[in-house]
Amino acid sequence: MNQMERDFRPDGLAEVEYLDGEYRLVKPGSFVLCAVTGDRIPIEALRYWSVDLQEAYASPASALKRFQDRGLTPG
């Protein structure tokens, strides 16, 4: 392993502020938890979240389920 292959991210749960189209790491870590499933989401794979609820989701299906459960979807 050379210097460029090392991973310097701290292990553990990250604290994240979810913004429109981006997020800000409040406390560094290697993952966040899905608010619906509890699955670990590596920070580099984080794609789905709610700004209003300040939650992360593992997949679009998880996000949809949360929004439906909270009555945030039409119909």
Q: Could you explain how this protein is built, in words?
A:
By secondary structure, the chain is α+β, with helices and mostly antiparallel strands. It has one domain (10-69). It has one helix and six strands, in the order ββββββα. The chain has one helix at residues 60-69; strands spanning 15-19, 22-27, 31-33, 40-42, 48-50, 55-57. β1 (15-19) and β2 (22-27) form a beta hairpin. The model has no long low-confidence stretch (mean pLDDT 90).
> Approximately how much helix is present in the residues?
10-25%
Q: Give the tally of structural domains.
A: 1
Could you give the order of the helices and strands? Answer: EEEEEEH
3D shape: globular
* Count of strand segments: 6
Number of helices: 1
**By helix and strand content, what is the structural category?**
alpha+beta
- The parts where pLDDT drops under 50 for at least 5 residues are none
Q: What share of the residues does DSSP label as strand, in percent? A: 25-35%
What spatial order of strands do you see in the largest sheet?
1-2
Main beta sheet: strand number and arrangement?
Answer: 2 strands, antiparallel
Radius of gyration: 14 Å
Q: Distance N terminus to C terminus?
A: 54 Å
In round numbers, the mean pLDDT is: 90
